[in-house]
């Protein structure tokens, strides 16, 4: 009754203020009204204007008719933010300096020349051995010490919904052979699909394996753990690895293991299992072999994820034969995202579409060799529904 009399006693001006507050609140209402602390203010493009290695950096905004906004910077050709119904589902920083100072260099970045690991930092191609830059023990991870995540790309905004980034990776960069010309295009559709197209050509035989390292929380960045998210992977087998994350060369069934996501289940449901791979990586960090079944666009389904608080759903589709599922095991609260949110343990997950780790040294795995006259082309689509 007290609320009733308070409302009835409002003046005309009071009613106007109440209506304005409701409208403003409605602009930032989280999906299904259940998310809360993760609604962040829009990014400032000016905060991404700078110079790195003598190259200018900036921020490029893509927006569709539903009001979804993606933000991309040419530093690392990375996805900075993806706001759906004002809820940001991609972890990242609010400025260029945030990325430059980060102790975790891969947030949202394009990864190359070779995503994931190459054993003993070496590859043999056409009888020639190429020593690579080791940056993960004795192995090469995500392209070496200065992979594609740490360089400035040339950017061209194609439209209000697309941006194209290009980079020339010179012969010998991080030890890889060949001058590799790379192009990455981000497109945001009116179906709330973020599409990433990768293309590359070379003047010498080399290896290529490109992906994006976006960290997602479908409840919104800052909403807490992702262990309650429901995950389904379109994969019957995975590539087991040793304690250093290097594949053994086998493909094992996921059935009767904690890596079985063939039916939807919570990410955290089997994390306590005493499996050696879970223990060595402190959680999920496995490559899965995807089904060969393609849709009419030539894409295979990789994963379906649902936020347990938001109801937001993500489907990942790709032309790639594998996907690396990472449960945010090495997030340790050392970095501060937008809105003062820390990158706490397992508060975001990754689904990195890719060829298999260490494929250059595993002839039985799908080949990652690119030769002169050939064109590398790969596509990944992140489709959101609510």
Fill in the keyword field for this structure.
nine-stranded antiparallel sheet, disordered N terminus, globular, five-stranded antiparallel sheet, mainly beta, single chain, 386 residues
Notes on the structure:
With 386 residues, this protein is mostly beta strands. The protein has four helices and 28 strands. The chain has helices spanning 2-8, 12-27, 96-101, 276-281; strands spanning 50-52, 55-57, 59-63, 69-73, 78-84, 87-88, 110-111, 117-118, 122-125, 128-131, 140-141, 154-159, 162-169, 180-188, 193-202, 206-207, 211-212, 230-233, 237-239, 252-253, 265-266, 285-289, 300-306, 313-318, 322-326, 350-354, 369-370, 376-385. A nine-stranded antiparallel sheet has the order 12-13-14-15-28-24-23-18-21, with no helix packed on it. A five-stranded antiparallel sheet has the order 20-19-22-25-26. Strands 3-4-5-6 form a four-stranded antiparallel sheet, with no helix packed on it. Strand 5 (78-84) and strand 6 form a beta hairpin. The model is unreliable at 1-37 (pLDDT under 50).
Major sheet, described briefly?
9 strands, antiparallel
Classify the helix fraction into a percent range.
Answer: under 10%
Number of strands: 28
End-to-end gap: 36 Å
Mean pLDDT: 91
Shape field: globular
| Stretches with pLDDT under 50, minimum 5 residues | 1-37
- The radius of gyration over CA amounts to 22 Å
Structural class: mainly beta
> What's the assembly state of these chains?
single chain
Strand arrangement in the largest pleated sheet: 12-13-14-15-28-24-23-18-21
Strand content: 25-35%
Number of helical stretches of at least 4 residues: 4
